UniProtKB/TrEMBL annotation, chains A, B:
<dbReference type="InterPro" id="IPR024096">
    <property type="entry name" value="NO_sig/Golgi_transp_ligand-bd"/>
</dbReference>
<dbReference type="GO" id="GO:0005783">
    <property type="term" value="C:endoplasmic reticulum"/>
</dbReference>
<comment type="function">
    <text>Component of a transport protein particle (TRAPP) complex that may function in specific stages of inter-organelle traffic. Specifically involved in the early development of neural circuitry, likely by controlling the frequency and amplitude of intracellular calcium transients implicated in the regulation of neuron differentiation and survival.</text>
</comment>
<dbReference type="GO" id="GO:0005802">
    <property type="term" value="C:trans-Golgi network"/>
</dbReference>
<comment type="similarity">
    <text>Belongs to the TRAPP small subunits family. BET3 subfamily.</text>
</comment>
<dbReference type="Pfam" id="PF04051">
    <property type="entry name" value="TRAPP"/>
</dbReference>
<keyword id="KW-0524">Neurogenesis</keyword>
<dbReference type="GO" id="GO:0006888">
    <property type="term" value="P:endoplasmic reticulum to Golgi vesicle-mediated transport"/>
</dbReference>
<keyword id="KW-0256">Endoplasmic reticulum</keyword>
<keyword id="KW-0333">Golgi apparatus</keyword>
<dbReference type="InterPro" id="IPR037992">
    <property type="entry name" value="TRAPPC6/Trs33"/>
</dbReference>
<protein>
    <recommendedName>
        <fullName>Trafficking protein particle complex subunit 6B</fullName>
    </recommendedName>
</protein>
<dbReference type="GO" id="GO:0007399">
    <property type="term" value="P:nervous system development"/>
</dbReference>
<dbReference type="GO" id="GO:0030008">
    <property type="term" value="C:TRAPP complex"/>
</dbReference>
<dbReference type="InterPro" id="IPR007194">
    <property type="entry name" value="TRAPP_component"/>
</dbReference>
<dbReference type="GO" id="GO:0005801">
    <property type="term" value="C:cis-Golgi network"/>
</dbReference>
Length: 158, 158
């Protein structure tokens, strides 16, 4: 029914809290984004740890990505990623056609400015989840048409 | 499987963030508790709003409490309240025998000091949920035997 709602509402509170408590105002945006990303990172690590407790070892990187798109995404957002693409050279694009954490943002044009702060936590979440499985990555996100959203993962080879 | 985990991990991050970002240290504990309580209040309001969208009107106060114990608690914590008591004069005690947000706290004796910060958000959550239904209350909590926990609700008559 509203299974993803508690997480969504809490995420929204966190966002507001971080932005309100920042004293340097606008210029601090980068720092706020980083805080949200870090918070997501730790949540992602912990969640992946718990989700894979009884899971068989993954075959390869693609197998890990499929797990993120299905099991991990469903655990957090109560739906799967709608589309997964890769160039087979360490870049993966995960598309969510109805990204829950954007649903409180109106579909007007101002979302273009606001979107990054609604996506930062989840970028960290994915990076943390992968990190827990020994995969180092850089994760960025962009809104295509609201509320669709693409997360790009660049694997960092050690 | 781990349906309550995203919320639980995020709650834990919020806790750590608020306590880390408080600069006045120990003496600020009351203010941190208040911040958590307020955050819970807003989440509770929003959640109750969403949960009761298509619900029939409640008969009375007790009917509201039962909804909090069953539907609301299940939405957030993936389990129901184990025991509801009332003195029929505006005091209700909700007991959760395995309160999720305490599960990351060890069962040692130091929990007695730590417990209030793990309970503050949920006190606010209940207060906010009731407030959304027009019921003004004061909510306090205490740990009996870890991880069992009692929430006491005192209805404030207008």
């Amino acid at each position: 029914m509203a299974d993803e709602a508690p997480f969504q509402f809490l995420h929204n509170e966190v966002l507001q809290y971080i932005y309100k408590s920042a004293e340097n105002g606008e210029t601090d945006n980068g720092r706020n984004i980083a805080k949200l990303e870090n918070m997501g990172f730790r949540v992602g690590q912990g969640l992946m740890e718990r989700l894979t407790k009884d899971t068989a070892r993954f075959k390869d990187e693609l197998d890990i990505m499929k797990f993120v798109c299905k099991d991990f995404w469903t655990c957090v957002f109560k739906k799967q990623i709608d589309n997964l693409r890769t160039n087979h050279q360490g870049i993966y694009v995960l598309q969510d056609n109805k990204f829950r954490l954007l649903s409180q943002l109106s579909a007007g044009k101002q979302y273009l400015e606001q979107a990054p702060k609604y996506l930062a936590f989840t970028c960290g979440l994915v990076r943390g989840a992968l990190s827990n499985l020994g995969v180092k990555s850089i994760v960025t996100a962009e809104v295509s048409v609201m509320p669709a959203c693409k997360f790009q993962i660049m694997i960092q080879k050690m």
